[in-house]
Specification:
- There is one protein chain.
- It is built from 13 helices and no strands.
- The radius of gyration is 31 Å and the shape is globular.
- Helix content is about 65%, strand content about 0%.
- The protein folds into 2 domains: about 35-75, no CATH class; about 85-290, Orthogonal Bundle (MetI-like fold).
- The termini are far apart.
- It has helices at about 30-60, 80, 90-120, 125-135, 145-155, 160-185, 190-195, 200-210, 215-230, 235-240, 245-250, 260-280, 285-290.
- α6 runs antiparallel to α9 and α7 packs across α8.
- It is mostly helical.
């Protein structure tokens, strides 16, 4: 009796080694990219230099104002503390009241007007929008005499409310136009679906349309706020007491007939730019998206 031995099992095939791939080399930036980046940094430096000069002058002691050196030997940080004794806090409060009040009034009127013109085709719609655009062409400086006589009739000279109404009136056209473009870019089907689900027309506007149009609303907000914050001619004409002067008028008081208080002038200018910078930094992303409102259908 013969015994058979089982055949040995074949050894498992070893996987073939893949050829080692060379590590990807980091390609240097192209000359065009470097040129664009360098130009962008150069433009940024050019725009930031006046603000840097403003800060340095605000920190420069009085004895070093005429020195040729760019940086002072000693920084006078007390200029930013002493300026509050001149009543700058009251003027800062007035500027905030004017800018915030004008912005709220503009949004309160512009949102319903822009929504109605974007969703309704009525007779004279084109003429209405044209008249709104024409009001944007007028400047307060050209109408300052009529504005003064009108508020004098209503006994509103030296009143913060007068500045709120004027700034709101002259910024209304821009807000209506940009919001009209943004509301028009939102499909009507979204609003109709909300109405089918049980929302009223007003409810659909507040719950659906306004949240979608928030970038456009924020854009109108920031531009109205900055325009009211920087206004000078009307504020100088309609306000007479120092306690009702906004920051723009208060800054001009540091310029005398024979001398200029450069330290307080530039320190006040630096303080005046801080609220706008903070506001713009908080909503910058929505401002950029709101600027493209209506550009794509």
């Amino acid at each position: 009796m013969t015994t058979t031995t089982p055949a040995p099992l074949p050894a498992p095939a070893t996987p073939a080694k893949r050829p080692a791939t060379p590590t990807a080399r980091r390609t240097p930036p192209r000359l065009r990219t470097v040129a664009i980046a360098g130009s962008a940094y150069l433009i940024a430096i050019v725009f930031l230099l006046p603000y840097l000069e403003m800060v340095i002058t605000a920190l420069r002691p009085a004895g070093e104002l005429t020195d040729r050196n760019y940086l002072p030997h000693h920084f006078a940080f007390g200029n930013f503390l002493n300026i509050w004794s001149t009543g700058l806090g009251t003027n800062l409060k007035v500027s905030l009241e004017i800018a915030v009040g004008s912005t709220l009034l503009v949004l309160l009127v512009a949102i319903p007007a822009a929504y109605y013109t974007a969703r309704r085709n009525f007779r004279g719609k084109g003429l209405f929008l044209l008249l709104v655009l024409i009001t944007q062409m007028f400047q307060p400086t050209a109408m300052i005499v009529g504005i003064y006589r009108e508020f004098l009739t209503f006994n509103m000279i030296d009143s913060v409310w007068a500045l709120v109404l004027v700034n709101a009136g002259f910024n209304m056209a821009f807000a209506v136009w940009i919001l009209n473009a943004y509301f028009s870019a939102i499909p009507k089907e979204i609003e109709e679906a909300a109405i089918v689900d049980g929302c009223s027309r007003i409810g659909a506007m507040f719950r659906v349309i306004i949240p979608l149009a928030m970038p456009g609303i924020v854009t109108a907000l920031i531009f109205t706020f900055i325009a009211a914050w920087n206004e000078f001619i009307v504020a100088l004409t309609l306000t007479t007491s120092d306690t009702n002067h906004p920051l723009t008028v208060k800054a001009s008081s540091y310029i005398g007939q024979y001398s200029i208080d450069w330290q307080h002038l530039f320190a006040g200018s630096v303080i005046a730019t801080i609220p706008v910078i903070i506001l713009f930094a908080l909503i910058e992303g929505k401002v950029v998206s709101g600027l493209t409102a209506g550009s794509v259908k």
